[in-house]
Amino acid sequence: MELNEIKSKFLNADRIITILDKKARFRASFIRNSSTVKTSQEKHNLAQFPAALLAKYLTSASLISSFLKGEERIILDISSDGLLEKVFAEAMPIGEVRGFIRYGNHSDSALKKMIQNGFFKLSKILYDKGEPVTGIIEINSENVEDIIEDYFANSEQVPTFIKLETGFDDNNIIKSSAGILVQSLPGVSLKELNEVRTHIKNIRSLNNSLNGDNDLTNSLQQYLPFDFDVIKTSRVDFFCRCSKNNFISKLYTLPVEEIESMHSEHQNELVCQFCNAHYYLSNDDFTRIINDLKAKKN
Ligand SMILES: [Zn+2]
After folding, report:
1. Which of 32, 138, 234, 258 could covalently link to 254 via disulfide, CB atoms 3.0 to 4.6 Å apart?
2. In angstroms, what is the span from residue 147 Cα to ligand 1's centroid?
3. Where are the domains positioned within the chain?
4. Which comes out higher in pLDDT, residue 147 or 13?
5. What distance in Å separates the CA atoms of residue 224 and residue 214, rounded to the nearest whole number?
6. How far, in Å, from the CA of 3 to the mean position of ligand 1?
């Protein structure tokens, strides 16, 4: 790679910034993640509407996870018995995010109508808790921003404002994505809350980086009506921890007969639901697994 190319890749990398209000009334995160969500659209081969929906949940998961530590995780799990079956988004504060959307074979406009029937579940996997901390609400909107704000207001009693933006090119491929999330800390007055809310909702565009300004801190200074300290910044990537070896180790938990029938029926394809990666088992792989399982049995 040329030096300039490396430089521009670095400058244009997806990033997230987390800040604290100097008066400690609010905390906020701001993300620009165009290539991350474009990758999710490409990996899952999505049309415009499902791509936008998945992008908004991936962006939300990244924003919410930014308040956690290290490899703690946020999982958003949206389920519906309607046309839209499931949206799943998982993010870590170190910048990894992955997810998928599952829906029947329906048109974008049919999907749009059905999205408001279902449940929104948020789970936090935290270092100091043995079990995930989970909250759930019934979905009463087709707007992802409303659903996230509703969840925090009703399930966690934390006033939260979020704005999400996804832009598409002429071929319905994601070309830009950004999001901002502001949460109030205890003791904030209603007046202060409303002021910040109005400010966030009136932001015209979160994607003016396309005009050359890549600095998240600069942008955030325009968006927020208060002074702040930067807590941390991180790169963001669509990243899945799956591997062929992970899948093979799961096969070792199955009965040997099942592996043998997979082999005889040529079911040698393993697909990761999170990132749609395809792995293939060779005849040697099958022989090895079957021999190992038989040896274990004896
Ligand atoms: Zn994967």
Report:
1. 258
2. 27
3. 11-238, 244-297
4. 147
5. 17
6. 31
Fold agreement (11-238, 244-297):
no
Ligand 1 geometric centre to CA of 278 (Å): 9
- pLDDT tens, residue by residue, 72-106: 999 999 998 777 789 999 999 999 999 999 987 76
CA 73/CA 253 separation, integer angstroms: 26
Global pTM reads 0.90
Q: How far is the CA of 243 from the centre of ligand 1 (A)?
A: 7
Parallel, antiparallel or unpaired: strands 119-125 and 96-103? unpaired
Q: Which fold has domain 244-297?
A: CBS domain Like (3.90.1280)
Residue spans of alpha helices (H) in the chain: 3-11, 34-44, 48-65, 108-114, 144-155, 190-201, 216-223, 244-251, 256-264, 283-297
Superfamily of domain 11-238: Hsp33 domain (3.55.30.10)
Distance 250 CA to ligand 1 centre (A): 14
Task: Give 239 Cα–ligand 1 centroid separation in angstroms.
Answer: 8
pLDDT in tens, 214-254: 689 998 998 999 999 999 999 999 999 999 999 999 999 99
